[in-house]
C-alpha cells in the first residue's frame, strides 16, 4: 500500500467531514419559519371556510356531472377564488416519465397541468425527472416520505410497478398515475378514452382522403393501442361510409422510427393516403414517411401538427386537464382514489383542431395551423356533440 | 504547530500535503459548482444544504447514499484491478450488464431451490458472465493485439443492446414495460433497511474491497499483475507470464463488475429492467480515479459519488435545481483531482510553499 493511496482516501474522508460540518451549521439557518404572506389569518380563514361550505353544493353538482373529477369549466370564478384560499401554498409533487421535460408530449403536457394549478390555485409544485425506470421507486418514496405533498402525480404507465409498492407503504399519501391502473385506495388511476378523440380524428381522415383508403400504424398490439384504432375506424366510417380503413399494422416497439417509417411506406405504396400513427417515437418515422410521400399524416397524444405540413390533425390526450383536476381535488380535500376514465365530455381526450384546443397547441409549440375545411370541422363538432350526448357510442379497443 | 507534529507521526509530511491537496480539489469542485448555481439563479447554500441533508440527513438517507454507492464501488474495483496490470478496462458497464442479466436469468429460472443455494448460484452466474465478457477482450488483446480500450468499450454497447433485446422479446414479462418477471424469492439478497433499497450487496462489495486489496498487495498473483502493469517487458524478463496475467486481470475485473450487476438485480430491482443502469460502469472508472486507484480509496470515492446522487435527488425536489448539477460536480471533482499540480500552483500563488 503506497503512501499516496493513503493520502488520497484520507483526503476524501476529511473533505466529507468538512462538508458535514458546513452542512450542520448551515442547515438550521434555513428554517426561518413562516412568512406572514404565506398564510391567512385564522378569522379570515374561518369566514372564507363558511363561504366555501356554501359553495359546496355547486361543487358537488359539478363533480357529479363530471364523473367524480372536478372541472374548472363548471366552477364559477367566485368559487374558484374561494377555492384558491384553501389551495394556496399547498404542495404537490410531479414525477415525470423517463423522457423528462422537453418531450413535447406526455411529460410536457402533465407539467402544463401542474403549471396551471400553480397559476390558478396558487399551489406550489416540485418536479423531478427520473432518467431510468429503476429510479422511480426512490423518487416516489422520497416524495411520500417527506409527507409534505397533498398529491404525488406519476406520469407514465411504467411507474406502475414502483407505485404499487410505494403506495402500499404510505397509505395516507395520495397518488395519481397517468395512463395506468394501480389498484390501491390511495391511488387515482387516470385513464383516457382514446377511442373518443380518435373518433374525431377518423372523421377528419375519412373526409380528407382522396383514394378512399386510410391506415393506422400502432406501437405495440395491445388493447391500449387498439383503442385508438377502433375509434379512428369508427369515426372515418361514420363520416364517410365509402372509406376503407385498412387493418392496423404494429411496429412492435415505441422507440423505432426506422421501422415505423418502413411500415408507413409499405401502406403508402398500396395506395393509402392517410396514416394515423399511435406509436410514440416509432410514430415519428411513420409521420416522416407521410411527409416524404406527400400524403396526410395524423399525430397522437400531443398536437404533432407542427412537425410537417402534411400532418393536419392529431388526437390529443389532455393529461394537463386530468392532472389539474386531480390537484384541485387533492388540495380541496375531495380526492378519492380509484379508477378514473375521461373522454370528450371531461375534456380528457380531444382533437387538436377543435376550436377550444387549437390556440393552446399553437402557442405551446409556436406554429400556426393551415386552416381546416369548414365542412369537415362542422362534421367533427357534430360528432363530438353526439358522443358527449351519448347518441354515438364509440367502440372500445378493450372489448 | 503541535497538531501538525502530532499529525506527522501518523502520516508523513508528503502524505499530509497530498491529503490537503485532495481536500482542496473536492472543495474547489463545490466552489465552482456554487458559482455555476449562482450564475444560473439558484441559491448554492440552499442547494448544498438540501443535498447534504439528502445524503446524510437520517438513517434512511444514509441508506440511499450507500445504495447508490454500491454498484459504482463494484465497477470501480473492476476498473482498478485491470488497471494495475496496465490494462484500461473501460467496459465495466458491459460486464456489469452481462452479470446482471445472467443473475436475473438464474433468478427467474428456478423456483424451488433453497435460498442460500439459489443466491450463490445467481451470484456465480453473474460473476461468470461478467468474467466471460472480460475474457473476450483479453483474448482479442493477447492473440490479435486488439486494443482493450476499443474492445471493452464496444462490448459494452453489445451488452447493452443484447440485454435490451432479451428483455424486449424472449424474456419480456407480460405488460408494457421492457423487463423480465420478478426473480424468485429465494434468489433475492435481503434488504437491510425497512423501505429502503439498500441490500446485502454492499457486504459483497465491502468484502471485495478487502479481497482486491489483499490480492493486489499480498499475493504472488497480485505481484505479477502489478509488475506487468509497471513494466511488461521487465516482468516478462523476470519470468512472469504477461499474457496469462493480462487475461486473468481482465477476467477477474469482468467478474467483479458482473457481481455488481448481480447485486443490483438480486438486491435492488429484483428483475432486469431495460436500461436500469444509468451508466454505473462509466461512473466506476471515475470513482477509481478519484479514489487514487486504491481499493479503500475507491470505497470512499464511491460514497462521495453516492452521496452526490442521493443528495441530488432531494436537492432537485426541494430546490428545483436540475440534477445535471450533480453530474457537473462529479466532473469537476474528477477534473481537480486529476490536476494536483494546478492546485499546487494556486497554493503557491497564495504564498504557501509546498
Describe, in plain words, how this protein is organized in 3D.
Chain A is α/β, with parallel strands linked by helices and 399 residues long. Chain A has 14 helices and 13 strands. Chain A starts with a helix and ends in a 10-residue tail after the last helix. Mean pLDDT of chain A is 85; it is low at 28-41 and 62-72. Chain B folds into 2 domains: 1-42 and 321-354, no CATH class; 59-319, ABC transporter involved in vitamin B12 uptake, BtuC (Orthogonal Bundle). Chain B has 15 helices and no strands. The interface between A and B is large, with 52 and 62 residues.
List the keywords.
heterodimer; A: 399 residues; alpha/beta; Rossmann fold; 2 domains; seven-stranded mixed beta sheet; six-stranded parallel beta sheet; 15% strand; globular; B: 354 residues; mainly alpha; ABC transporter involved in vitamin B12 uptake, BtuC; 15 helices
Tell me the β content of chain B.
under 5%
Distance between the termini of chain B: 16 Å
Overall 3D shape of chain B: globular
CATH class category name of the largest domain in chain A: Alpha Beta
CATH topology of the largest domain in chain B: ABC transporter involved in vitamin B12 uptake, BtuC
**CA gyration radius of chain B, whole angstroms:** 21 Å
* Element-by-element helix/strand order of chain A: HHHHEHEHEHEEHEHEEHEHEEHEEHH
Broad CATH class of the largest domain in chain B:
Mainly Alpha
Figure out the total of helices of chain B. 15
Give the termini separation of chain A.
69 Å
Please name the two chains that share the biggest interface, counting residues whose Cβ lies under 8 Å from a Cβ on the partner chain: A-B, 52 and 62 residues
Helix content of chain A: 40-55%
Low-confidence stretches of chain A: 28-41, 62-72
Output the radius of gyration of chain A.
24 Å
In round numbers, the mean pLDDT of chain A is 85
Amino acid at each position: 500500500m503506497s503512501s499516496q493511496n493513503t493520502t488520497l482516501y484520507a483526503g476524501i474522508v476529511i473533505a466529507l467531514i468538512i462538508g458535514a460540518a458546513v452542512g450542520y451549521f448551515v442547515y438550521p439557518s434555513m428554517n426561518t419559519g413562516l412568512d406572514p404572506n404565506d398564510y391567512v389569518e385564522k378569522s379570515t380563514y374561518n369566514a372564507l371556510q363558511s363561504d366555501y361550505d356554501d359553495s359546496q353544493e355547486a361543487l358537488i353538482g359539478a363533480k357529479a356531472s363530471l364523473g367524480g373529477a372536478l372541472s374548472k369549466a363548471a366552477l364559477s370564478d367566485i368559487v374558484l377564488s374561494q377555492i384558491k384560499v384553501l389551495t394556496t401554498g399547498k404542495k404537490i409533487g410531479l414525477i415525470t416519465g423517463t423522457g423528462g421535460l422537453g418531450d413535447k408530449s406526455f411529460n410536457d403536457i402533465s407539467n402544463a397541468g401542474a403549471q396551471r394549478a400553480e397559476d390558478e390555485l396558487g399551489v406550489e409544485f416540485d418536479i423531478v425527472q427520473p432518467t431510468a425506470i429503476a429510479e422511480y421507486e426512490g423518487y416516489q418514496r422520497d416524495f411520500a416520505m417527506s409527507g409534505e405533498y397533498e398529491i404525488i402525480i406519476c406520469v407514465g404507465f411504467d411507474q406502475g410497478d414502483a407505485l404499487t409498492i410505494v403506495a402500499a407503504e404510505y397509505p395516507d399519501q395520495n397518488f395519481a398515475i397517468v395512463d395506468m391502473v394501480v389498484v390501491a385506495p390511495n391511488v387515482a388511476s387516470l385513464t383516457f378514452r382514446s377511442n373518443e378523440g380518435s373518433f374525431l380524428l377518423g372523421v377528419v381522415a375519412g373526409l380528407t382522403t382522396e383514394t378512399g383508403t386510410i391506415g393506422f400504424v400502432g406501437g405495440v398490439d395491445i388493447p391500449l393501442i387498439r383503442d385508438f384504432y377502433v375509434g379512428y375506424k369508427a369515426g372515418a366510417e361514420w363520416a364517410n361510409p365509402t372509406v376503407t380503413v385498412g387493418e392496423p399494422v404494429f411496429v412492435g416497439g415505441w422507440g423505432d422510427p426506422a421501422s415505423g417509417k418502413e411500415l408507413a411506406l409499405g401502406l403508402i405504396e398500396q395506395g393509402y393516403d392517410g396514416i394515423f400513427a399511435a406509436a410514440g417515437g416509432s410514430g415519428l418515422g411513420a409521420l416522416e414517411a407521410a411527409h416524404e410521400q406527400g400524403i396526410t399524416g395524423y399525430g397522437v397524444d400531443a398536437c404533432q401538427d407542427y412537425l410537417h405540413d402534411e400532418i393536419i390533425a392529431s388526437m390529443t390526450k389532455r393529461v394537463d386537464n386530468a392532472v389539474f383536476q386531480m390537484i384541485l381535488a387533492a388540495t380541496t380535500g375531495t380526492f378519492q382514489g380509484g379508477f378514473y376514465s375521461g373522454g370528450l365530455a371531461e375534456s380528457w381526450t380531444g382533437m387538436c383542431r377543435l376550436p377550444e384546443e387549437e390556440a393552446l397547441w399553437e402557442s405551446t409549440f409556436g406554429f400556426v395551423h393551415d386552416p381546416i375545411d369548414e365542412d369537415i370541422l362542422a362534421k367533427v363538432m357534430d360528432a363530438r356533440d353526439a358522443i358527449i350526448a351519448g347518441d354515438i357510442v364509440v367502440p372500445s379497443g378493450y372489448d | 504547530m503541535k497538531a501538525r507534529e502530532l499529525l506527522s507521526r501518523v502520516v508523513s509530511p508528503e502524505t499530509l500535503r497530498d491529503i490537503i491537496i485532495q481536500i482542496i480539489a473536492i472543495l474547489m469542485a463545490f466552489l465552482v459548482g456554487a458559482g455555476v448555481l449562482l450564475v444560473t439563479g439558484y441559491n448554492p447554500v440552499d442547494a448544498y444544504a438540501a443535498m447534504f441533508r439528502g445524503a446524510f440527513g437520517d438513517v434512511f438517507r444514509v441508506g440511499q447514499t450507500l445504495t447508490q454507492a454500491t454498484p459504482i464501488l463494484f465497477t470501480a474495483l473492476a476498473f482498478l484491478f485491470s488497471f494495475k496490470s496496465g490494462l484500461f478496462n473501460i467496459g465495466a458497464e458491459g460486464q456489469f450488464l452481462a452479470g446482471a442479466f445472467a443473475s436475473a436469468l438464474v433468478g427467474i429460472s428456478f423456483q424451488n431451490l433453497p435460498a442460500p443455494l439459489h443466491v450463490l448460484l445467481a451470484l456465480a452466474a453473474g460473476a461468470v458472465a461478467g468474467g466471460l465478457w472480460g475474457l473476450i477482450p483479453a483474448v482479442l488483446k493477447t492473440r490479435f493485439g486488439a486494443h482493450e480500450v476499443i474492445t471493452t468499450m464496444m462490448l459494452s454497447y453489445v451488452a447493452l443492446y443484447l440485454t435490451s433485446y432479451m428483455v424486449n422479446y424472449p424474456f419480456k414479462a407480460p405488460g408494457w414495460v421492457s423487463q423480465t418477471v420478478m426473480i424468485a424469492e429465494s434468489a433475492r439478497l435481503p434488504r437491510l433497511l425497512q423501505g429502503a433499497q439498500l441490500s446485502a450487496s454492499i457486504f459483497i462489495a465491502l468484502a471485495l474491497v478487502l479481497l482486491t486489496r489483499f490480492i493486489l498487495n499480498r499475493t504472488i498473483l497480485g505481484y505479477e499483475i502489478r509488475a506487468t502493469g509497471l513494466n511488461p517487458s521487465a516482468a516478462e524478463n523476470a519470468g512472469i507470464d504477461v499474457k496469462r496475467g493480462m487475461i486473468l486481470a481482465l477476467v477477474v475485473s469482468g467478474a467483479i463488475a458482473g457481481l455488481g450487476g448481480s447485486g443490483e438485480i438480486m438486491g435492488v430491482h429484483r428483475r432486469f429492467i431495460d436500461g436500469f443502469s444509468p451508466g454505473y460502469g462509466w461512473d466506476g472508472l471515475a470513482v477509481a480515479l478519484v479514489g487514487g486507484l486504491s481499493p479503500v480509496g475507491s470505497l470512499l470515492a464511491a460514497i462521495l459519488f453516492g452521496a452526490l446522487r442521493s443528495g441530488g435527488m432531494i436537492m432537485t425536489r426541494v430546490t428545483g435545481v436540475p440534477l445535471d448539477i450533480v453530474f457537473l460536480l462529479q466532473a469537476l471533482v474528477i477534473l481537480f483531482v486529476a490536476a494536483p499540480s494546478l492546485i499546487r500552483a494556486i497554493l503557491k500563488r497564495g504564498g504557501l510553499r509546498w
